[in-house]
Specification:
Shape: globular
Low-confidence stretches: none
Order of helices and strands: HHEEHHHEHEHEHEHEHEEHE
Number of strands: 10
Structural class: alpha/beta
Strand order of the largest sheet: 5-4-1-6-7-9-8-10
Radius of gyration: 17 Å
Distance between the termini: 25 Å
C-alpha cells in the first residue's frame, strides 16, 4: 500500500488517529511535562487543494466531519483544531500530527517529528516555525525515535508509517518494544491500516511478544475486510494505554464508523 500523507490527508483514518492522539496528549499532560515523538511526521500541514484532490478522500473524511451535527466531545476537539486553521470557513487546510501536537503543547512540553524524505522534511520544519518547543528532523524515524525516547521519561510516541515497505509492520512492532523496554512509562500509539486480519494478527502477536505490556486495540471498520488491496478500515494500537482510553477510543471509532462507514461498518475496542 502506498500511503503518503499528502495524498490521504483528512481521510477517515486521519480523523481516528488525530482525535485519539489529541486525547492521549491531554491525558498525558495531566501527569506533568511530556515529550511527544513522531516517527513518520510528514509535512505537518496539508493544503487539501493539492495532492489530496487526487484521492478525494478528504471529501469523505474531514469535510463530512466539519459538516456533521452533534459531534461527540472528543471528535469536536479535532473539529475545533481544523476550524482554527480555516478562519475563513471551508476546509482547505488540514493539520497533520506535527501541527496538532505543537499547537497543544504546554510551556514545558516538547515535540520532535522525524521524516525520511528530504523534501517533506523541509515542509515539516516550515510548518513548525513559530513553535519554540517543536522541531522536525530528517532521517529514519524508527531508529532516531529510540535515541530520543532514551532522553525522556514517560514520552508519548506516535508510530505512523506509510506502509510502503514490506517490513513496516515488523519495524513498527520492534520499535515500540524497544521504547517500552527502555521506559515502562512510555505510551506508544501505532496507526495501521486494516486490509486483512492475517497481517494485522501477525503484527499484534509480534507487538505483544516484544512489549509484554498492556495494549489497547481500537478499530474503525468502514467496510468488511474482504478486499486485502483496499484500506477497509484502520486501527490505533496503544501500548500502555492511560486510564479512560477504552472509552475515548470507543467514542471516536464509533462515531467515525457510524457516520463515515458503509452499511455494516462497526467499531471494536479491545485489549491484547
Amino acid at each position: 500500500m502506498n500511503y503518503r500523507h499528502s495524498f490521504h490527508a483528512g481521510n477517515f483514518a486521519d480523523l481516528v488517529k488525530h482525535a485519539l492522539v489529541l486525547w492521549l496528549l491531554k491525558t498525558r499532560q495531566a501527569a506533568g511535562p511530556v515529550v511527544v515523538l513522531d516517527t513518520h511526521a510528514g509535512a505537518g500541514l496539508y493544503d487539501l487543494t493539492g495532492d489530496a484532490m487526487r484521492s478525494r478522500e478528504a471529501e469523505a473524511g474531514v469535510q463530512k466531519l466539519m459538516a456533521a451535527a452533534d459531534r461527540p466531545a472528543l471528535v469536536e476537539v479535532l473539529a475545533a483544531e481544523v476550524a482554527a486553521l480555516n478562519p475563513d470557513g471551508g476546509v482547505r487546510f488540514y493539520p497533520g500530527s506535527p501541527v496538532l501536537m505543537a499547537r497543544a503543547l504546554g510551556a514545558s512540553d516538547a515535540y520532535v517529528g522525524f521524516e525520511l524524505r528530504e523534501e517533506v522534511a523541509g515542509l515539516l520544519r516550515e510548518s513548525l516555525l513559530g513553535f519554540a518547543t517543536a522541531r522536525g528532523e530528517i532521517g529514519d524515524g524508527y531508529e532516531l525515535v529510540r535515541a530520543e525516547a532514551k532522553q525522556a521519561r514517560g514520552s508519548l510516541v506516535l508510530i505512523d508509517p506509510p506502509f510502503e515497505r514490506p517490513d513496516d509492520y515488523l519495524r513498527a512492532a520492534d520499535t515500540a518494544a524497544s521504547i517500552v523496554k527502555a521506559d515502562h512509562l512510555a505510551v506508544v500509539a501505532i496507526w495501521t491500516p486494516l486490509k486483512d486480519l492475517e497481517t494485522f494478527d501477525g503484527f499484534l502477536r509480534r507487538l505483544a511478544e516484544g512489549t509484554r505490556a498492556a495494549t489497547l486495540v481500537a478499530e474503525a471498520r468502514l467496510r468488511p475486510l474482504t478486499n486485502p488491496m483496499k484500506m477497509n478500515g484502520c486501527a490505533m494500537v496503544v501500548v500502555n494505554p492511560p486510564e479512560g482510553a477504552d472509552a475515548a477510543a470507543t467514542e471516536i471509532c464509533g462515531w467515525v464508523a457510524g457516520v463515515l462507514g458503509d452499511e455494516g461498518a462497526k467499531a471494536e475496542v479491545w485489549r491484547v
